[in-house]
Amino acid sequence: MQIFDSEYFGYKNNELYCEGVSVKSITDALGTPAYIYSKKFFGDKYNEFKDAFKNVNNTLFFATKSNFNLNVIKIFSNLGSGIDVNSGGELFRALKAGFQPDKIIMSGVGKTDEEIKLAIENNILMLKAESLEEIHVIDEIARSLNKTASIAIRVNPDVDAKTHPYISTGLAENKFGISSKEAISIFVEASKLKNIKLAGIDMHIGSQIVSVEPFKEAVEKLAQFVLTLRENGVNVEHLDMGGGVGVRYKDENPFPISQLAEAIVPIVKKLNVDLFFEPGRFLTANAGVLIAKVLYTKQNGNKNFIVVDTAMTDLLRPSIYGAYHHIQPVSLNAERKDIIADIVGPVCESGDFLAKKREISKCKRGDLLSVMSAGAYGMAMASNYNMRRRPPEIIVDGDKYFVVRSRENYEHMLFDEKIML
Ligand code: LLP
What domains are defined for the chain? Predict the structure, then answer.
């Protein structure tokens, strides 16, 4: 079987390490399943992105929907990043982690009045509006608070990001943004509203995009749009590219971020606008692994099953997108032969699998497996289905580790449920 090895998750004497800490030493202390993240990865990826775009005014707003752990958010705040929030809950966390309001932007196709109010009251940098009706609601709420709300309008550039249909968002048929046909009249109307400051234009064409082309095509369309807007007397100060930069889960060959810069910086420079980005997965996916323990191995007919103690409740991506996550042993043993097996969890659903027909070295009860590339949309999409406790999250920094979120317990999961009948 193929072994993934990086400077963040690599093997020493056949044992998997995260930076300078043996993964087994962490799970010996805390049990499994457990999410483990490398702090260095977050910083390296943030700096790589910033460096690629150093010749143009730019701000990164970490898309915290990919990983909303308070300490992960804090790491990005310490790095000087901004943050993109998609709900009142994410805004609350961003503020808790110490983000200054002028480093926070809010996305979302369906913001509630309460969320809009919270954003304006907290003086965040801007809200990204997705319909004319929403723009009017933001204007009204801002008026009632005696404030001016800065907004960007999300335009749907109608480009095919060539990614999974569930995570493709920039086609005319998707629910996101306003169509480019109506965009001019909506921008003109928004620019006249008293309690709105129209600051920018925004797009997000999809996620896990592994070629530069769709980005380039979208930016070219939006650049033309900015020029038409200016002819119509409306100016915008920034262009928000959204997120979507793809990463390697299996054998994808994502473009180096410098290639994205080469493709779009010349277009943007001519417009004299600031560039915003909202990367999520790029900054977090390969920062994390999910460690599981083998509970049972069995054969049904001639099919091998490895039943582990993690499940779709901890990592939903394989079940809902058929996503590939590489899985490899925490302790390598050259004597173990490779087999083909389905790696499945304990939840009572046939859709509860981590991998199907996967080549993996033969396992035994008690072995530890590492599910790779689990730092983005892993814990963030976890649930308590089957009343399973969500796993702990650990951040490794050099040769130290921090339990930044403990495993839930049954009492936690009751919250304030009381027997009333
Ligand atoms: N900005 C906006 C407005 C977004 O909707 C998203 C992701 C991002 C930024 C960050 O995109 P990224 O850089 O992470 O691709 N659960 C799916 C991904 C859903 C992405 C939703 N929006 C998955 O596990 O693949």
Answer: 9-38+285-413 (2.40.37.10), 107-279 (3.20.20.10)
